[in-house]
Amino acid sequence: MVGTRGVPARYGGFETAVEEIGRRLVAAGHEVTVYCRGERHGDEYLGMRLVYLPAIEKKVAETLSHTGFSVLHAFREKIGRDGADVALVFNAANAPLLPVLRTLRIPVATHVDGLEWKRTKWSGAGQRYYRAAEALAVRWSDALIADARGIQDYYRERFGAESVFIAYGAPILERPDVAKLTEAGYAPGEYHLVVARFEPENHVHLAIEGYRRSSATRPLVVVGSAPYADEYTARLKALAGDDPRITFLGGVWDQDLLDSLYAGALSYVHGHSVGGTNPSLLRAMGAGAPVLAYDVNFNREVLGEDAGRFFGDAASLAAEIEAAEADPGRAADRGAAARKRAAERYVWDDVAAAYERLCADLAARRLTRKALRRR
Predict the structure, then answer these.
(1) Which CATH superfamily is domain 13-169+348-372 in?
(2) How many Cα atoms within 13 Å fall on the side-chain side of residue 186?
(3) What is the pTM of this model?
(4) What CATH number labels 178-345?
């Protein structure tokens, strides 16, 4: 499993997927190697073998450089012994390195993620690179993995390429740790919540603008940060101004506290717009949070029509926040519907089983580049 920060999962959706899928593949009897970067956590985790390699710590080079070291390591292992039967590569940005794996005759599935070229942090050359990388992923992968139907549609329409749909799983939280909330100074149902990496396409700025336009009396708690995002972070702080109702908690790495924040929110404002099936949204749903989501096809796909409300601008978000405060019972009912939907449709055991079938098909050469392309 190549192309992420590795495990334990402490950063984003890809890392969570690697941990949840990898541990289940190990339990099913498979040997799993995860390439990691950053802080070391031993040579094994939940049965997965961990290989730590360096990365160039620059925004434009970090992921690709680490994957480059990873495929070279895989090359040496393949020469020295049997090596891997299948490679799961996360992020289409790593596509230029796929020919190394193909040279080793290792079948490759690429999890293409969302529409990275739409992220504002990639301007000019960065956007061109990501769009080119998508085409290379189609050309050099034996299979593409899409975590949302909207991503499937994009690759089919743009490249004439088929993909395997495998969504993420959602953690289902039945009994939140209320004591964690109390320690942090919050009470269930008494605050609105934003959890997001600070990037413009996650619309944290819109969440703050909408909240400030509302007549809300309960505070807005903003959880998040981002590397390489000082300018956007400063913009968010300026938008909040001296409004005493808005609190920035920064990154919350205590996962029990984060779960409790989701579960206790009167509303969870989800502004993500380009990432397919978003793990933060699934986590909020699994915790029973009443979701107010930015109105794009990915969010509607995950929430359906009854498990959330949608906004497109500051005015519509302000109205939804006010509605949640006016009728918290109805908001709680939406949260319960969201948790039920997550428990039925986004199950990690099912996700891992789908990955296992995919790997078996790749190892048996039932999936090839020829099958990937329709024309």
Answers:
(1) Glycogen Phosphorylase B; (3.40.50.2000)
(2) 27
(3) 0.89
(4) 3.40.50.2000
